């Protein structure tokens, strides 16, 4: 089975720019969630997508947005980048349901200068 | 709000030593509890979980028991190996979701031969 893949692995952007991060979910998974992990901290939940709609969101401003496509892959978009957006962005896929574990990709390291 | 606190690292042990990584939580309701592990250069992987009080999760020689009376979910292993060197994260799920996890800051474990 194919695991969760994220692209790109590393990215450098300038403050004020926009960025799009991509995630292909594990085969058979229909739910994708995104997390932000600052250096030395645990992940912070951004949002989750199921059936191409956002159905859960953490404490992140509207400039963080996402999409899920019919093949269950997903994008995370961040507008008006700020220096504090520098972090590792993690995508996780799962099957809808309480008992289903999250399967994480290796993440995209975003640096905002 | 809900929160997870885990012991600060790094924790450095010799091979075959006994391991305990403490994790305590604050939550309303009855969350599920998780331990995830992040090996160097890899994504987060679910290590074990427990969904109700007194449940014991176990995997790869690691164990953790959901203790509601002490709001704890300490990770233990009887004899660690060099290959166990990684960062360990304790997390809880809010409500009925398995994706909107609240994470601890992580504990880096270093095992010396």
Quaternary class: heterodimer
Low-pLDDT residue intervals, each spanning 5 or more residues of chain A? none
Number of helices of chain A: 0
Strand-pairing-aware structural class of chain A: mainly beta
Q: How many strand segments of chain B? A: 12
Roughly what is the average pLDDT of chain A, rounded to an integer?
Answer: 92
The tally of helices of chain B reads 0
Q: End-to-end distance of chain A, in Å?
A: 37 Å
Shape of chain B: globular
Biggest β-sheet strands, sense, barrel of chain A? 7 strands, mixed
Structural class of chain B: mainly beta
The Rg value of chain A, from CA coordinates, equals: 13 Å
Largest interface: A-B, 26 and 24 residues
Query: Percent of residues of chain A in beta strands?
Result: over 45%
Q: How is the main sheet of chain B built?
A: 6 strands, mixed
Task: Give the integer mean of the pLDDT values of chain B.
Answer: 92
Which spans of chain B have pLDDT < 50 for at least 5 consecutive residues?
Answer: none
First CA to last CA of chain B: what distance?
41 Å
**Share in helix of chain B:** under 10%
Gyration radius of chain B, rounded: 13 Å
Percent of residues in β-strands of chain B: over 45%
